Each structure stands twice: as C-alpha cells, then as structure tokens.
Amino acid sequence: MKIGNIDLGERPVTLAPMEDVTDASFRILCREAGAAMVTTEFVSSDGLVRDVSKTIAKMHTLEEEAPVAVQIYGSIPEAMVDAAKMADQAAELAGGHGADIVDINFGCPVSKIAGRGAGSGMMREPDKMVAITKAIVEAVGKPVTVKTRLGWDDNSKIIVELAERLQDAGISALTIHGRTRCQMYKGEADWTLIGAVKDNPRMHIPIIGNGDINSAQKAKGAFDRWGVDGIMVGRASFGHPWIFTEIRHLLDTGEELPPMSVADRVALAKRHFQLSLDLKGPITGVYEMRRHLSCYFKGLRDFKETRIKLVTSKDPAEIFATLDYVAARWGEEAPAVEGAYGL
After folding, report:
1. Which domain holds residue 321?
2. CB distance 281 to 316 below 8 Å
3. Which of 47, 65, 72, 255 is the most exposed place for a label (fewest CB within 10 A)?
C-alpha cells in the first residue's frame, strides 16, 4: 500500500492519533513493534496560527518514527490551510524529522472539538469539509490524508458519497472509523460501510479501516472480510503497544504469538518510561507516563496497590524500582483478560 510515494508494504497496520497518548515515546515503541506508520496527537490549527509553543511542539517528530503523519484539526478554512502549510514545514518549525504526511482530523467525536464544528463535527457540513480538504491539498507539497467517520448520526451516514468527494479533492488515502459521531465509542463499529467504500469502483486511493481492532484475529478478519488496504489501531494499543507485533506475526505467518509475559512487559514499560524521561524531562516525563503505566499490567491479579504506587510516585528511581518489583513478583505470569485493553 502506498500513500503518495510512501510505501507501507502489504496489509499495513498503523497507529491512530490519540490525544495525550501518541507522544513521541509511544510512537517510537509502536514503530519498533511493527506499526507501519504513526500519527501525532491532534494539532490545533488555531494554536498553530497563533504561534502557541505547546501546539507547535506537538509537531516535533524523530527519525525513528518515520513514516509519521502530523494531524491537524479545526473548523476555520483559512486557519486550516495555514496550519497545513506549517505541518508541511514541521521540521523547520518544530525541529526533528518533520511530517511525511499531513493528515486532517475529521473524526474526533469529543464535544470540545466536534461541538465547535471541528473533527467529526465537520460531518454536518460536508461541502465545507471537501472545500477545506481541496484547499489543503493545493497548499502543501506532501501527501494529504483524511481520517473521518461514517456520518454525524444514524440518519446521516454519508461516508460512501463523501469518500468519492474527498478523493476527488485530491487526498492520497482515507481512514474511516466505523462509527458515527453520535456513537462516540459506544456499540460496535459498523465495517459494512467501510467495505462499501472499498468496493466502490470509483475509489482508487487506499482505504484504511478503524474501529474495534483489539486483537490480531480481528485485524486479520478485517483484511480478509472487507478487503481494506490497511488497518488503523487506536485504543487497543494503549498499554499494549506490542499489539502491532501480534498482528504482524499473524498476518505474516498465520500463527498467533503467545501472550507476553509480565517480565517482558516490565522491560518494555521501562524502555517506554526512559524514553519519556529523555524526551520530556523528569517532571513531565513522570506525569505523562502515568496514564501508560496504569495500563501495562491490566489483568494482573492482586495488583491494585502496586498500580497505585506506579501512578502516584514522582521519583523516577522509585518507579523503576517498583517495575523491578513487578518483574520479580509476577514475572512469569502472562495475563490475558478479555477486553483488558479496551477497543
């Protein structure tokens, strides 16, 4: 599968953008685990054009992550175009590797974004969505992609027609989450409409499916049943970055890997934590790692007190020592609790 001139290989599995989750340390781990491409956290177009330092910093990427997409969101056309130009020049503005792809967020359902007409809020204004997309494609030199949903609600599932229009606007690939905005993350993702977009003879760009891929078997099933070009994994990677290794192994060999042992999870958590410290320093690195450490050992019995210690300590040395204790206490266990990593 290619996005522009970027070759992601056969049946690629990519990492979805997630606010407060997909920072550089996590993206690096997912790439090492087998993710074919990763995407930054959401980057506000308003923040970029106002030159907000924290927003610009979100575009900082590293060579180890490539290929990496910088994802922007917003509802004001002029700001979105200006932000896309800045994302196109992310290496100059934020340092590091920069962006290989500029991705447009037309899918985020949270109220603070969709309620302002951005993210999946744009599903109520498809003409505006297409116009913004076309203007961005014309304004930047890198491939432009879109991530969106089926529609605003059950009465407006417009994705089949909308996909054609977005393709005609010039995008290089389309990722579809199989829910409406009003569903948020509830219920099951509806892959039938994702399949309908892929089966549309007018479509020639890659179609990437997203929603409820929380195991290697579900990823394989999505490829086999719906014929999508790629898969995007979101919430199931949180606390479980090795899901990409599991999926890749099944796709390539036809065999499933055994569950990862706690000792191996500890080793990965320690590497993740050290990357967070190296990239963000001892204060922010500790604070922002808490959300990850709380999830690495889901499904482990009698773990409540140890988890509390992991997510409340402010001392990196104490956290590393607690992780060593986890390896010593539970190291040979391999918890595999159904639904432990969400969807």
Report:
1. 262-330
2. no
3. 255
Phi/psi at 38 (5° precision): -125, 165
Based on the fold, state whether residues 143 and 285 are members of the same structural domain. Answer: no
Task: Count CB-CB contacts under 10 A for residue 263.
Answer: 16
CA 12 to mean position of chain CA atoms: 14
Q: Does any domain span residue 4?
A: no
At 15-72, the pLDDT tens digits run: 999 988 999 999 999 999 999 999 999 999 998 888 888 899 999 999 999 999 999 9
Q: At what angle do helices 262-293 and 316-330 cross, to 10 degrees?
A: 140
Cα–Cα distance for residue pair 128/276, rounded to 1 Å: 38
Whether residues 225 and 88 fall in one domain:
yes
Which amino acid is it at 313? Answer: S
Instruction: Please tell me whether residues 128 and 267 are part of one structural domain.
Output: no
Could you read off the pLDDT of 313-324 as tens digits, one per residue? 999 999 999 999
Beta strands in the chain (DSSP E): 2-3, 6-7, 13-15, 38-39, 43-44, 68-73, 101-106, 144-149, 173-177, 207-210, 230-233
| Catalytic center residues | 108
